[in-house]
Each structure stands twice: as structure tokens, then as C-alpha cells.
Write a structure and sequence with these properties.
Helix content is 54%, strand content 6%. It has 8 helices and 4 strands; from the N terminus they run H-E-E-H-H-H-H-H-H-E-E-H. Helix 2 crosses helix 4 and helix 6 crosses helix 8.
Length: 186
């Protein structure tokens, strides 16, 4: 299925049950393996929603300038939550986003200015070698050891991430592996 085909479909069309804004009614005869798959896919969609909201807010800021801020009062979400979604989506290019990787890992990666370091940690996380705590610990350890070349602060949560040098060959390989667009290559 092409990206255009996927993008035009409702994210709920292929899931069993009746969805409303506040509930899900499942068939009484749903098999347990189908139910487990449904729950896994719902959890994945929950993470996708964060990307969608962040991308929509970034688009709104681009298209409407400061007027995009009007939507913040309309959502019922905390401003900090929306700012975090917007910030993370703005710092992580689509080519680096993987639905199999926990959103919280991207939250940690977003504050790292060095794309090579982001890619290195993401690659290890995708292989199951790093958890969210591991990524956060690596950032703290590098910061504590004074290995930082730069520290960047998230404007909404004031969290900081460490920027570190990565060998040029490894960086180029990771940039190619994840098809990172030029504007995100530092």
C-alpha cells in the first residue's frame, strides 16, 4: 500500500468493533489472539496520534503564524503537552520515525542536536538494546562526563539533551539508512 493510500484511510477502518469518541464496543465472539492484536494496534495508534498532533501544530504555525495558538484553547490538552508533541515532531524527521519504537524514546532523542547521536541511539533502540531509561541515562552520563559539545534545551519541558561527536563514517551510514533529509543533517 502506498503512503497516499494509507494516508487517505481512516486509522480505525480496519479494526474490529464500533468506535465512538468515548468508547469501543467489541464483538462478543472476538478471539483472544484477535483481541491481543487489536490492543497492540491501538497502543501503536496512540503513539501515532502524538505524531499527527505534532505535525498538525507545526503545519499550523507554518501556515497561520501565531494564529495557530488559537487551537490550544480548543483541544482541552495542557499547553505543555501540545508543545511537547509539536517540539518532538519538529525535531525528528519522518524518515526516522518508526511505529515499533516507543514514543518516549523519541522524546529523549528530540533534545539531542547532533543527528548522528540521535541515529546511533535510535538504531540501538530499534534493535532492542536500549530502553527509554537507557537513552536518558546515556544522555546524563555523557553530560556528567563532560563529553558534551553542546547542550540544547526543549522550550516546553526545559529538558536537556547532550550533543556528542560521532565518527563521520558511522554518521553517514546512519543518515543513509534512515533516509534523513538534508535539512536535518548537521
Amino acid at each position: 500500500m502506498t503512503r497516499e493510500q494509507t494516508a487517505s484511510r481512516s486509522p480505525w477502518d480496519d479494526l474490529p468493533g464500533d468506535f465512538t469518541d468515548v468508547s469501543l464496543h467489541l464483538p462478543v465472539d472476538i478471539r483472544i489472539d484477535d483481541w491481543v492484536e487489536l490492543v497492540k494496534r491501538l497502543v501503536k495508534r496512540e503513539s501515532s496520534t502524538r505524531w499527527w498532533i505534532g505535525d498538525a501544530l507545526n503545519h499550523g504555525e507554518f501556515a497561520f503564524g501565531e494564529e495557530y495558538l488559537l487551537v490550544f484553547d480548543e483541544t482541552g490538552f495542557e499547553v505543555g503537552t501540545l508543545n511537547n508533541y509539536k517540539y518532538i515532531a519538529g525535531q525528528i524527521p519522518e524518515s526516522m520515525r518508526d511505529p515499533e519504537v516507543n514514543w518516549s524514546i523519541y522524546r529523549e532523542l528530540a533534545s539531542i542536536k547532533d543527528t548522528g547521536m540521535q541515529l546511533s541511539l535510535l538504531s540501538e533502540a530499534k534493535l532492542g538494546r536500549l530502553t527509554v531509561r537507557d537513552v536518558a541515562k546515556r544522555k546524563r552520563d555523557m553530560e556528567n562526563k563532560g563529553q558534551n559539545q553542546d547542550v540544547v534545551t526543549c522550550p516546553s519541558c526545559q529538558g536537556s539533551g547532550v550533543v556528542s561527536a560521532v565518527k563521520r563514517e558511522r554518521l553517514q551510514a546512519l543518515l543513509e539508512e534512515f533516509n534523513v533529509p538534508d535539512e536535518f543533517r548537521g
